[in-house]
C-alpha cells in the first residue's frame, strides 16, 4: 500500500435484504470506495458473479443481480485491481402462498397450571410442498388494551421447519398484570424484500376464561 491517503484502499459492500432473494427476483447491491482515511470516495465500482449458474450480473456497472437457481451464489465488487471479499447471495424458492395449519380460535383457562394456548400454526408453501427456513412474524393485540400478563412464546423470532410449519403460543406470565378477555394474534409470512406472501396476514383469536 502506498502512502497516499487519498487513494482507494477498500470497498465496502452492502447487500439489501441480507443478501436473500427469491428465484426470479432481482437484487441491487451497493458498494462504497474508501480511501486511506476511511472516507467515501466517488468511484465507479463494477460487479461480477462468481457463481453464474446461481446468480448473474447482466450490467456490471449497476450490479443488478438476477436469481437463476436456488442455492448460494457469490458477488464481488471491484475498482481497478482492488476486489472486495466475495459476498454470499442466498436464492430461495419462490413462495406461492401461506396458510393456517391449526384452528383459528382457542380458549385458555387462566387458572390452569400451564395456561398456554394451542400452537398457532402457519405453513409456507412452494407448490404443494412446505417451504423450510422462512421467517414468520407474529404480533398480538390485547383486548381490552392493558398491560397484561400474556406473552407470545417462544419470544425469539421463528422460522418454518423442514415441513414448512412455524408456530407460537400465547402464554400467561407468572405474577403479571390482569388477564385480558382475548388476544388477537396476526401472523405474516414475508418475502425477503418485505412483501407479504399470498394468504398473509393470518389472524388467530385466543379467548381467556378464569
What does this structure look like?
The protein is mainly β. It has 2 domains: 8-92, Immunoglobulin-like, CATH 2.60.40; 97-209, Immunoglobulin-like (Sandwich). It is 0% helix and 49% strand. It contains no helices and 21 strands. Strands 2, 6, 9, 10 and 11 form a 5-stranded mixed beta sheet that branches. It is elongated, with a radius of gyration of 23 Å. The termini are far apart. The model has no long low-confidence stretch (mean pLDDT 90).
Any descriptors?
single chain, 210 residues, mainly beta, Immunoglobulin-like, 5-stranded mixed sheet, 5-stranded antiparallel sheet, 0% helix, 49% strand
Quick recap of the structure?
The chain has no helices and 21 strands. It has 210 residues and is an all-beta fold. The strands form five sheets. Strands 2, 6, 9, 10 and 11 form a five-stranded mixed sheet that branches. Strands 12, 14, 15, 17 and 19 form a five-stranded antiparallel sheet that branches.
Low-confidence stretches: none
Return the CATH class of the largest domain.
Mainly Beta
CATH homologous superfamily classification of the largest domain:
Immunoglobulins
Q: What would the principal axes of the Cα set say about the shape? A: elongated
- SSE topology string: EEEEEEEEEEEEEEEEEEEEE
- What number is the mean pLDDT? 90
Number of strands: 21
Let me know the largest β-sheet: 5 strands, mixed
State the helical fraction: under 10%
Report the CATH architecture of the largest domain: Sandwich
Strand share of the residues?
over 45%
The radius of gyration over CA amounts to 23 Å
- CATH topology of the largest domain: the name is Immunoglobulin-like
Task: Tally the helices.
Answer: 0
Content-based structural category = mainly beta
Distance between the termini: 72 Å
The number of distinct structural domains comes to 2
Amino acid at each position: 500500500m502506498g502512502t497516499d491517503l487519498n487513494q482507494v484502499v477498500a470497498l465496502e459492500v452492502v447487500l439489501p435484504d441480507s443478501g436473500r432473494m427469491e428465484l426470479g427476483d432481482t437484487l441491487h447491491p451497493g458498494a462504497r470506495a474508501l480511501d486511506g482515511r476511511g472516507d467515501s470516495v466517488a468511484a465507479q465500482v463494477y460487479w461480477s458473479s462468481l457463481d453464474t449458474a446461481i446468480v448473474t450480473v447482466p450490467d456490471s456497472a449497476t450490479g443488478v443481480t438476477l436469481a437463476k437457481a436456488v442455492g448460494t451464489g457469490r458477488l464481488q465488487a471491484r475498482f481497478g485491481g482492488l476486489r472486495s471479499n466475495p459476498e454470499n447471495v442466498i436464492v430461495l424458492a419462490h413462495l406461492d402462498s401461506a396458510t393456517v395449519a391449526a384452528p383459528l380460535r382457542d380458549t385458555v383457562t387462566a387458572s390452569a397450571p400451564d395456561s398456554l394456548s394451542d400452537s398457532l400454526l402457519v405453513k409456507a408453501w412452494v407448490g404443494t410442498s412446505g417451504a423450510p427456513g422462512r421467517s414468520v412474524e407474529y404480533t398480538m393485540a390485547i383486548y381490552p388494551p392493558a398491560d397484561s400478563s400474556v406473552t407470545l412464546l417462544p419470544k425469539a423470532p421463528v422460522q418454518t421447519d423442514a415441513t414448512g410449519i412455524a408456530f407460537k403460543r400465547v402464554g400467561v406470565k407468572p405474577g403479571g398484570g390482569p388477564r385480558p378477555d382475548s388476544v388477537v394474534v396476526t401472523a405474516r409470512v414475508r418475502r425477503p424484500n418485505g412483501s407479504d406472501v399470498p394468504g398473509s396476514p393470518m389472524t388467530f383469536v385466543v379467548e381467556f376464561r378464569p
